[in-house]
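As promised in the previous annual report, we have extended the structural survey to additional targets. Below is the entry for Erythritol transport system permease protein.
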Amino acid sequence: MATEISAVQAPAVQAPVVPQTRGVPALLLKLRALIALAVVVAFFSVAAPNFLSASNFLIMFKHIAITAILAIGMTYVILTGGIDLSVGSIAGLGGMAAGTLILNGVTLQPLGVVVYPGVPLVIAIVLLLGGFAGFLNGVLVARFRVAPFIATLGMLYVARGAALLLSDGATFPNLVGRTGLGNEGFPWLGSASVLGLPVTVLLLAALALLAGFVARDTPFGRWVYAVGGNERAALLSGVRVDRVKIAVYVISGVCAALVGMIVASELVAAHPASGETFELSAIAAVVLGGASLSGGRGSVGGALIGACVIGVLGDGLVMMGVSEFWQMVIKGLVIIAAVVLDQLQGRLTAAGRA
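The corresponding structure token record, generated without further manual editing, is:
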């Protein structure tokens, strides 16, 4: 008699084993993020004055943390074979939502009062908002079978429009709160330091450890790899593929909302255009770190190294005085190179399988 698999007793699914290619080209492709990081650090150490100073490294780490947090969420999405183009807009919406909660509070119409939540509650509300936006992305992709590119592109416009509507396109300035309202302390998130390290960097470290553990050592992580490696096989093995897809987009949305608050906190202001092109940096970091855009291959650690490459490149170009227009060209070339290398690694993997 056939036995029915319950949701609680679903079988453990191992991540698909990717055949290992051999030879120097395969090794170079596998280590491409580390090689790229070493090259850009060596170049800017010579070409950019004060690049190796302690103060510059602290600033650079804060910039890297923003891309890296987005890349952590994006890694989970890409591991399932998806893509999330909405993270930049969700980040902008998260900053604006925090701004309106701090400056304008929440109006309770039936009671005729305005409630100003404290900073911890503001953070919780904005994270929930980011998670909800990710949930909508996941439902569109998993339940309605909308292509991830189209679903998240639509959310990109929805979130950006919502951010603009919150202030009619204006900036929320001076997000320090007021003592009498009990909502002070928001700048701490993006500007404070603990033991000489920025809070942003410590947040990144905690998130990276948690995300790496979940991806590597939990059933959910194995399900994520399984869905990206072979969705049909994962479904037949008892994995609830739709739930896994929804979950990874929720994770990405929460990471994006956190980044939006960090940026607004650091600037002590929220602008509705904040976060533009963040999604491109996050995708480039993940692919540079060795993830496959077709899913099933990648790691949180690789994404962090890729984020370091993007961050060092951006800050180094600024220190050299390179114009913003050339910076866009160079970053675009980096993204193209990352995708080309991903395709080349995929061909070598296929050759190793043959």
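The domain at 24-347 is CATH 1.10.3470 (ABC transporter involved in vitamin B12 uptake, BtuC). Strands lie at 106-108, 113-115, 193-194, 197-198. These points will be discussed at the next consortium meeting with the crystallography subgroup.
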